[in-house]
C-alpha cells in the first residue's frame, strides 16, 4: 500500500557551501560517510546534493507514518548503481537526478 510520495530539489552550490562546515556531514549515515570519503573531491558536492535531496524526499514521503532525522535515512547504491533507500520498517523507492546546478529526488514510500 502506498504510504506517500515526496520530492525535493537542491542547489548544488548551496550544498557545496554547507560542506565547509564539518557538522553538515552529520546528515550522512556511517556507511554513507565511508562512500563520501571515497568520492573524488570535485564530485562530492554533486553527490551529497543528490543524497540530501533524496533524504528530504523520503522524509516527506513517510511523514504521516513517523518522524525521522536525516541520518536515519540511508541512501546507498544497489549492484547496478541505482539509489536504494534503507529506513527502518518501510520500503521506499527513490530516484535521484542531477542537471547543471541542481539535484532533484523523488521518493515513494510503501507500507510493508
Automatic annotation (TrEMBL):
Keywords tagged on the record: Cytoplasm, Fatty acid biosynthesis, Fatty acid metabolism, Lipid biosynthesis, Lipid metabolism, Magnesium, Metal-binding, Transferase
Region forming the signal peptide: none
Q: Which GO terms describe its biological process?
A: fatty acid biosynthetic process
Cite the EC number.
Answer: 2.7.8.7
- Chief localisation class: cytoplasm
Enumerate the spans annotated as 4'-phosphopantetheinyl transferase domain.
Answer: 4-107
Q: Which cofactor does it need?
A: Mg(2+)
**Any one Gene Ontology molecular-function term assigned to this protein's record:** holo-[acyl-carrier-protein] synthase activity
What enzyme class is recorded for this protein? transferase
Q: Where does Mg(2+) bind?
A: 8, 56
Q: Which reaction does it catalyse?
A: apo-[ACP] + CoA = holo-[ACP] + adenosine 3',5'-bisphosphate + H(+)
What Gene3D superfamilies would the database entry show? 4'-phosphopantetheinyl transferase domain (3.90.470.20)
| Cross-referenced NCBIfam families | pantethn_trn (TIGR00556)
What is this protein's function per UniProt? Transfers the 4'-phosphopantetheine moiety from coenzyme A to a Ser of acyl-carrier-protein.
Name under which the protein is recorded: Holo-[acyl-carrier-protein] synthase
Encoding gene, per UniProt annotation: acpS
Amino acid at each position: 500500500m502506498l504510504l506517500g510520495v515526496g520530492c525535493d530539489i537542491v542547489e548544488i552550490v548551496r550544498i557545496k557551501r554547507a560542506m565547509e562546515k564539518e557538522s553538515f556531514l552529520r546528515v550522512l549515515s556511517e556507511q554513507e560517510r565511508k562512500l563520501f570519503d571515497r568520492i573524488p573531491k570535485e564530485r562530492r558536492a554533486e553527490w551529497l546534493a543528490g543524497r540530501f535531496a533524496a533524504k528530504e524526499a523520503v522524509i516527506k514521503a513517510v511523514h504521516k507514518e513517523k518522524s525521522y532525522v536525516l541520518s536515519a535515512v540511508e541512501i546507498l547504491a544497489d549492484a547496478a548503481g541505482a539509489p536504494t533507500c534503507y529506513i527502518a520498517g518501510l520500503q521506499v523507492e527513490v530516484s535521484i537526478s542531477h542537471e547543471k546546478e541542481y539535484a532533484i529526488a523523488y521518493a515513494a514510500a510503501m507500507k510493508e
